[in-house]
What we know:
Bound molecules: acetyl coenzyme *A
Number of helices: 12
Strand content: 15-25%
Largest sheet: 5 strands, mixed
CATH architecture of the largest domain: 3-Layer(aba) Sandwich
Radius of gyration: 22 Å
Number of domains: 2
Strand order of the largest sheet: 1-7-6-4-5
CATH topology of the largest domain: Peroxisomal Thiolase, Chain A, domain 1
Shape: globular
Amino acid sequence: MSNAGNGSRRYAHICGWGTSVPKRILSNSELAQMVDTDDKWIVERTGISQRFIANAEETTATLGADAAREALDIANISPDDLDLIIVATCTPEHHFPSTASIIQDALGARNAGAFDISAACTGFVYALSIASQAIQAATMNTVLVIGAETLSKIVNWDDRGTCVLFGDGAGAFVLQGSYDPGGVRTSVLRSDGSGRDLLKVPAGGSAIPASYDTIRDNLHCIQMNGREVFRFATRVMADACRDVVSAAGLTMEDIDVIVPHQANKRIIEAAARGLRLPIDKFIVNLDRYGNTSAASIPIALCEAVSEGRVRPNDNLVLVAFGGGLTWGASLVTWDVTPQPPLTGLRRFRRQALYRVARMRSAVRRGARAIEGTIWGSQAPDGMEPPRRDRT
Ligand code: ACO
């Protein structure tokens, strides 16, 4: 990005993007053998035909890291140049450490801070807003934003009301600062916690810690009041679009493409009617992915870019809703300067960099284990070791 432009104001531009999905596809007809449902009902009521399902080795972090590598390749940016990694997810690797830290280690992004954010399906819009504001404030220059989920691992596979909806996957964007106007222009973020019971994973947190009983009662799985979430979603999608467009000083006529959260085709159609926009302005790919929560917008946008549905200088609205309840939208001008693809030696060098990152991580963990064995029960300087003889 150049330093030319209109003075000292900084803008956050998207310069790389990537996706990753698990290998396994689960079709509606396979689902119909697991629960009392059928392909016709799922397609008519949701628009979903299939979804990707992670195996034991495919986790939120592995999918997120794969999407991030692709995004860094397209941006032609080294992991060392990253200042910050934000992962939006409601299926993190653990409560802590953050999935973002695990991905930071996998990429070998030695100069980056890392954290997760939890805003369910709205998470990617929240993360994009935080990243772009950090760049606009000039506290960061290069930020990796990832939406990654393995919802199949927290779905109750006996609950036909939810298990047909969700899928796994990840999408990543690299954002970089520049003085050229454009990029992520503005965002609106909203929440209404009074609707927290409509969509939740009840147990495993501090309110209801995990126990034998919570596992037996499937309280670690997604619970949803589908009809209420549907009503909420159809209302807020159009509102959030209008709010972000007016916050950017534009009108709906200026918008070329809308990338909605991919939860249900009927919700997207209702938003199109509410906004009086033709449905072909909306990117819809949930037929092949299902609802991948925080990953759905980046996956849909990446696919739209690769299919040529997003053109230079298009104004895009990314709009989402989800558990919390949360909702929000970002307005993005797609003014990407394509970088030459990584080829030959440079691709090989990048692969070597990731192998070195894996080795460095293993060496550090080994060194910590050895250090722990050598120092054993000895307390750090100035601290008294714990006494075991007290009764
Ligand atoms: N197969 C067959 N029948 C089903 C299925 C199924 N998979 N699921 C529900 N049904 C039945 C119900 O039992 C009900 O039967 P009944 O009338 O005999 O009681 C009937 O179908 C209608 O049920 P509804 O819940 O009214 O169906 P609806 O048309 O509302 O569709 C759906 C349900 C698809 C869940 C819809 O409400 C929806 O999409 N809601 C929003 C979901 C959403 O967007 N969630 C966001 C989550 S994102 C996040 O933050 C993680």
